[in-house]
Amino acid sequence: MIRAVVALTILAVSATASADDLPQVRSKAAMILDARTGAEIYAKDADEVRAIASTTKIFVALVVRKKELALDDYTEITRADAKAARGGSRTRLDIGQSFKNVDLLRAMLMASDNRAPTALARAVGLDADQLIDELNAVAKDLGLKKTRFTDTSGLRGNVSTAREMALATRAALDDDLLREIMSTETVEIVSKSGYAKITYANTNQALIAHKYKVLGGKTGYTTNAGYCFVAGAEIGGREVVMSFLGGDGKLTRFADFNRVAEWLDGGAPGAKVAYQAHKADDVTITVEPAVAVKASGTIDK
Questions:
Q1: Residue 81 domain-assigned?
Q2: Crossing angle of helices 101-111/56-66, nearest 10°?
């Protein structure tokens, strides 16, 4: 349990609040949470089980960090990694080349390279099947009841909900290293041999746009999942976590992010809760820990 010494005022939404007050989210499912308290601000079909594509890789990162991944050690890309990534988007991690584990994390979280998950798993002593078991274990430990993993990257299977993906993203952003990687716009990684020099750009267009302060996030896409996006942001002086699943168009998820951000900036009329936090030495509120989420189908675009 996490103890926060704050006074938190939570006000129910007025019964007269109009649907017109809410942001017009186009993604099939969405969830907006207060990052500090976990309070639900907005939900759209948030408990519907859906494929989640490359957002799966947030869970891979949580697994290898839990297993104390040696960041400065090198791991070689193998044919097994290529096999696990078949059917995904173009990779830039060539078989036979070795990269620092921290750089494989960057390749995975920033540009969603599908060879990175199994390589990172091998770096902590896990084969592909063991990685899938660990992904499900992390989801269970975090209390996620609808998240299920059957694949290492999300290309084939893996499901969750918008609510659980928001909770998982909140957990990932609590890790300072993962937060730093997911908020990096571009990076160059170099193989151990020096032969491969790769520049990765973050697929998070909300981050690149600089319209709002984005704290990190992850995109994903497969035909089954549609366009997915999870992110943390600071809007109107408070941190929130957003998840959008099942967008029809590549830019839908980022347009949804902007619509929600503008709504929050305007005071979030019609929100599930209105809240105000201030220091109060004589009040202690217990806040449940962030819950992790699972991910599925992952070809990033």
A1: yes
A2: 160
285 has pLDDT over 70:
no
Tokens of 283: 């009040």
CATH number of the domain encompassing residue 176: 3.40.710.10
Q: Give 21's DSSP letter.
A: G
Q: Count of domains in the chain?
A: 1
Res 127: pLDDT: 97
Residue at 128 is within a domain:
yes
Q: For residue 224, is it within any domain?
A: yes
Give the distance from CA 132 to its chain's centroid: 17
Higher pLDDT, 185 or 294: 185
253 inside domain: yes
Rounded CA-CA distance 232/166 in Å is 9
Q: Is the dihedral of CA 83, 89, 90, 91 positive or negative?
A: negative
Q: Which residues contact 182 (CB under 8 A, 6 or more apart)?
A: 109, 110, 172, 173, 202, 204, 215, 216, 217, 218
> Model's pTM, two decimal places?
0.85
Per-residue pLDDT reduced to its tens digit, 137-167: 999 999 999 999 999 999 998 999 999 999 9
Q: Residue 246 region, left (φ>0) first, then alpha (ψ -120 to 50), else beta?
A: left
Exposure on the CB side of residue 225, measured as CA atoms within 13 A: 33
What domain range includes position 62? 2-287
pLDDT category of residue 18 using cuts at 50, 70 and 90:
low
